[in-house]
Amino acid sequence: MKRVIFLAEIGINHNGDIKIAKQLIDIASESGCDVVKFQKRMIDIVYTKKLLDSPRQSPWGTTQRQQKEGLEFSQEQYAEIDNYCRAKKIDWCASAWDVDSQKFLRQFNLKFNKVASPMLGNFELLEEIAVEKKYTFISTGMSTYDELDAVIALFEKHNCPYELMHCNSTYPMEPEDANLLLIPKLRERYNCKVGFSSHETGFVATLGAVALGATSIERHITLDREMYGSDQKASIEPLELSTMLKDIRMMEKALGNGEKTLSEKEMAIRKKLRG
Questions:
Q1: What pLDDT was estimated at residue 33?
Q2: One CATH from 1.10.3720.10, 1.50.10.100, 3.30.420.40, 3.20.20.70 for 5-274
Q3: Does residue 179 register a pLDDT over 90?
Q4: SS3 string of the chain?
């Protein structure tokens, strides 16, 4: 089995603070993650004025607009993230929530694209992503087979390489809702690599996904689950992240090659027990 790609989803868990973002990049890099991922939105495009004007208490004010603007990084801050990730030798990417955000991300010449589950019905955005022909991770939460068929047809039309990520879009996700046996079914149906984007507490389902052949794993990460933010509770903290990465790498070794052979260690036992 090839090495599983691990995407550490910082998302909006940085709370608009570049220092927290850098701390999370450090943790991801030191733990052995392959990619850190953010989320990019143009607030006035993604949300209606009515919603943005509605009340919401947050560290940034009393409206939805203030809360959502507080979570967005500027051009300069993304440039800082880009430079910081290069220095740390870790890839980064972001899931765009609108066409203008996808165009914004192009300036950084990122290695990967990521489609978030809520965006599977936004074909204008999906087209904008597919024409780039970059390797794209596509989360499949909240979707039907018919919807996935249409998304995959679009990416194949543009010859854009992709990898599906099985996902249950509950936050946090109960392990019994993981439905891990869908991973091999998706792989067979679409003849492509299939990973797992999980929002579980702990990592039992994550390890199970690796055992079932998941080729990528995405998990939200945080400094502390008690921090402000809608995604914090479904995220994993630094020590847990480090432990999980070690267990994933051990699981990869445990899978072996699937061939029925006798190792030297087992042959030595055979000689003792069979005479």
A1: 98
A2: 3.20.20.70
A3: yes
A4: CCCCEEEEEEECCCCCCHHHHHHHHHHHHHHCCCEEEEEECCHHHHCCHHHHHCEEEECCEEEHHHHHHHCCCCHHHHHHHHHHHHHHCCEEEEEECCHHHHHHHHHHCCCEEEECHHHHHCHHHHHHHHCCCCEEEEECCCCCHHHHHHHHHHHHHCCCCEEEEEECCCCCECHHHCCCCHHHHHHHHHCCCEEEEECECCCHHHHHHHHCCCCEEEEEECCCCCCCCCCHHHCECHHHHHHHHHHHHHHHHHHCCCCCCCCHHHHHHHHHHHC
